[in-house]
Here is the input.
Amino acid sequence: MDKHSLISISDLSKDEILALLKRAQEFEKNPNQRILAGKVVASLFFEPSTRTRLSFETAVNRLGGRVIGFSDPKSSSQAKGESLKDTIMMVSNYADLIVMRHYLEGAARYANEIASVPIINAGDGSNQHPTQTMLDLYTIYQTQGTLENLTITMVGDLKYGRTVHSLLEAMHHFHPRFKFVACDELRMPEQYKQYCKEWGIDYEETRDFSPEIINQTDILYMTRVQRERFSDLMEYERVKNVYTLTASMLTGCKPNMRVLHPLPRVTEIAQDVDDTPQAYYFEQALNGLYARQALICRALDL
Ligand code: CP
Here is the structure.
């Protein structure tokens, strides 16, 4: 890739990931710097977002740059029928970098073919969410002191969950063991299980969110069942409340186990988990600021 775009987490080598985590650590110590003075970053969100959009925009503001864009495509000329191609060509004229979330898988890669400036994929359908993965890796390192040889249990919507797909791919550098907990309708897709096989990664699939699973886990990665990904809403109703983590389920867990969630949550983590030492999802979301500052600087070669 000629530009420093980030479309998939696989665009980054292990060394690049480690360098970005180091840079994020520097931003955690000092998030307010003037590195982006004179730069304009476009934030194009074709799908709703709280954390990704606001942490990207905060990242730019804290680094002294300017943000343009939209959080609702209905306020853009897409509502008049303008194509994604034309939108990206136009915004390339105005901004030095485009951060884009889109509901279609592959939209970010397509935009990258058209844009004259780098693209950062802020989530494309159920495909990839590589900037979430960078903050997840940062958080895993922060809580475990290592990325190596960890047992990561992924729970919930493993079929449509772009965050688990990106995280699985990134972790292949670090010898993980995975436990996939999902109902039949939302199992991890075959292509990701094949990926694990190709990289010699040990994984186990189960429907049972049992104490044994939780007690073997270093990182418990909960996910939301995403209503917006279902074409059959009856199916969504059947599976939406299958797994709920409660505080009492954590009584036998490893002392250093941490519960992560990309957020937003709905019913999959009960409020009483928030008060346990294992809850780390709000800190995880804060880390998005530092990880995204590092990624913006990479994209702009700064
Ligand atoms: N984790 C995440 O992508 O959250 P938002 O949808 O709020 O951006």
Q: What stands out?
A: Residues 130-285 form a domain with the Rossmann fold fold (CATH 3.40.50.1370). The first strand starts at residue 40 and ends at 45. The chain has a mean pLDDT of 96. DSSP finds ten helices and nine strands in the chain.
